[in-house]
């Protein structure tokens, strides 16, 4: 796949992951601040969710660059890396799920590079990858304490298809963390995935 650039951020590009993936992972900060929990409702926009503020804390998921090593050379999966001015700042792992949807296994952006369109560019590439494989849509999971991610997915056309209040109770029986399953359905398989001016375009 050729590099992809975003016209709104000329220094931003997305490429297939290369041998620098592990070094980028170890050198990046994927933590984010949790300041509230949202009471998600299917069919209700994020802005209408009841939000419970909490004492802010930093959360970081441990990311292992070897976990998805087999995805790089497989026909039904891929790893993409985002670059700002040729510096790696984000990545996305996507695969074909058992139910026929593309599944975003991992999406992360280096903390200092956020709010530069990185996550949106990676999601656009995942959409391009999924449509090229003629899949019916994309699915992913996030949690009700990552409201920034929820707003992003909503802006990108994803809707909540399921809410699981028990998923994390085995880790912490008192947790308030709830799993949210988001879906981006391709209603028109012939629709141009990059029809909007804000979408990235392929370049030589």
From TrEMBL:
Lineage: superkingdom: Bacteria
Family annotation (Pfam families): Acetyltransf_1
SUPFAM superfamilies: Acyl-CoA N-acyltransferases (Nat)
Protein keywords: Acyltransferase, Transferase
UniProt-listed Enzyme Commission number(s): 2.3.-.-
Gene Ontology MF: a single term: acyltransferase activity
Domain N-acetyltransferase: 41-187
Enzyme class (EC, first level): transferase
Protein name, per record: GNAT family N-acetyltransferase
Species name: Pseudomonas monachiensis
